[in-house]
Amino acid sequence: MQVEILVPLAFFALIFGSWYVFVTTRNKERLALIEKGASPDLFKTKSDLNSGYNTFKFGLFLIGIALGIIAGHLLTEGGMEEEPAYFSMIFLFGGIGLAVSFLLQGKFLKNQ
Questions:
Q1: Residue 89 contacts residue 72 (beta carbons within 8 Å)
Q2: Is the pLDDT of residue 50 over 70?
Q3: Which of 3, 39, 51, 109 places its Cα 20 to 30 Å from the Cα of 11?
Q4: Does the pLDDT of residue 33 top 70, yes or no?
């Protein structure tokens, strides 16, 4: 078998194995707490409650990355070197997307 194939397979197997151990361990802990009489509401975390905001943040981040790719392309057409143009614009617009999501999330939380 070729070594080039083993590296990605091992990488994804490691990620899947870590995720599987995390989920099964968490499930066993929760079942043990429920058997001892703990409330199931204990298991709701902040990330579960704010999952809509995480999706919103991720969406704006991806929009920022897309705008960064477009801006990087425009800069390369204008004569700038390709690598600095793309990397700088992707990081700049990705960061702007995260900042906008932070500001909008703050406004949404104030209204609620």
A1: yes
A2: no
A3: 51
A4: yes
